[in-house]
Structures are given as C-alpha cells and as structure tokens.
C-alpha cells in the first residue's frame, strides 16, 4: 500500500490523508483495486483511530468489506484489538458489516459469540438480526460456536433471544439452526450432550473388568446409530481391550448380577416404549446415557469385591427371583439356576 497513507493511517492524521490525496487523487482507487490488502481503514481500525477511520469510511466505504492478506476485514481487526467504540461507529454506518465473512467464513457476530462479548452481541443482534443465519466454512452456526468455546452463558442468551425476537420467520430459523449439522455431522444437541458428559465428570473411557469401554459396549450391542457413535467419539470415547465374550447376549447369560440385569432390562424396555414418541436426536441422547449406564452396570456385575459371591442364593427359595417378570426367559435372559454361598469363589 502507499507508504504515505500507511503513515497517515497509523498516526490517525486526517491532514496527512488529504495531503496525499492532493498528490494523487486516484490513490484510494488504486488501493481498492487490490484484492487483498491492508487499507488505511484496516490500519486505523487496528490502531483505534476512530475519526480517521470514519473519514475513510465516508470516502471509500468499500474498504470496510475488503479482507487483508490474513483474511480479516477492518471490523474483525477492531474486534481483535478491543476497539469497541470504533466497531460501534462502523456498524452504525453500515449494519450489514456484522455479516461480512472473513477468514474461514467467520463474521464479526461469530467473533463476539466466540469471545462472549455480550455488549457487542446485543448490539449486533439488534441492528442486524439476520446475521444469525451465517455459518462458517466448517458449517458452524452461532450455537455451535458458543458451545465449542464453552460459552454456555452466551448459548443461553442466544436461545432466549431466539424465543423473543420479532424477526421474520424466527420460529423456522430457530428450528433450522438448532438442527443444523456442521461438517462432522454434529448438531447443537450432539455438542451439548458431550459438554454435559465432560462437565459431569463422566469417565467416558473407564473400563470394566473385561477391559470394555462404553464404545466397546455400544459395538457389542449391535446398535445401528451413527449419531450415537459420533457423540461418544466426540466426547473422547475410544476402544479398550478386545471383548472377551462372543456377544452382548452371551454376557447376559453369564454370571451377571440378577439385580443389575433386572435394572438393565427395565431401562431398555422403558427406552423402547418411549422412543416411538421421540425425535431422532433425543433417542440418540438416551442411547448414549443407556450405554454409559450399562458400562457402569458391567463394572459392578463383573467385578464383585474379592472375586467371590456376596450373598447366598437358592433358586427354590430366594424371594428376590420372584421380582422378575414371568416372561423373563422369553426376553432372551437366563438367570443363573445354580446355588451359591456368600464368601465362596464364583
């Protein structure tokens, strides 16, 4: 770029700007013809020279939409340098600057969502509510960006704004954005589940006594659900040791705790009853929870303390067995018919 203009912009000198224009009246047009360049507006925005920036904005508004060699517009640079008042002034002149995409398709709105700047977020949504429709080249919406950057308060703010906004077709856009999938096929709901698992301290790769993780259990169950698998993997799930039994059904026919098995059956039956009224997203979430529950159940059932029976059991007298449904065997489960004594090896 013109060296004299560089100096003028870095100093914020309007007098120096016009001195250069007197020398070359076409100097701003010459800069504008360059596809990617740090214009005087870029330099002034970074330095926080508001008056100089506004004068350039008046003379050459096209500079405000131009990206430099790093892929940033003047508004992006002002945001990065915390030049908040300058951002307000630029957006007041042209509200659609909120939607101008820079590097990787990120807009100024995406940036304030990522950083959690509520003052600018409120301003951007007020002057340009349609900016919520823009997505990055990774297919990320403002909701994806908020959750991926652990901005849960920002996510909550955006959700409330969507519920109260008077924007045309707001309800349709709310549904569309919440169900939008990024390049990895993750919706906001997927990411939210993963965040919940991590925040709750769930040890996603904890192994049971057979060396199985939640991901191994999922594979053994033979559930055809790519969304569920994606959520587990997104949460950091990995495979443990190769399963040591032939199948999930074979495990249930082994010496698993009757009580744990009974709870597992009730959980799966309840899930089956409810899933007909669920969305695919909610069904995937519940399946994740069930798999994690199963992993914990296996941990308790397969690894009793000391490797011995913890109670007495006689199928002819034990009343606990009567709590199982009469069609228990027809469901594919076979309670252990053998007696055992507490303290004896399994």
From TrEMBL:
In residue terms, where are the ANK repeats? 104-125
Q: Residues in domain PGG?
A: 279-315
Sorted alphabetically, the keyword list is:
ANK repeat, Membrane, Transmembrane, Transmembrane helix
Note the InterPro entries from the entry.
Ankyrin_rpt, Ankyrin_rpt-contain_sf, PGG_dom
Look up the domain of life of the source: Eukaryota
Keyword hit for Membrane: yes
Give TM segment ranges.
282-301
Stored PROSITE patterns = ANK_REPEAT
**Protein's name according to its UniProt entry:** PGG domain-containing protein
The root-end lineage is: Eukaryota, Viridiplantae, Streptophyta, Embryophyta, Tracheophyta
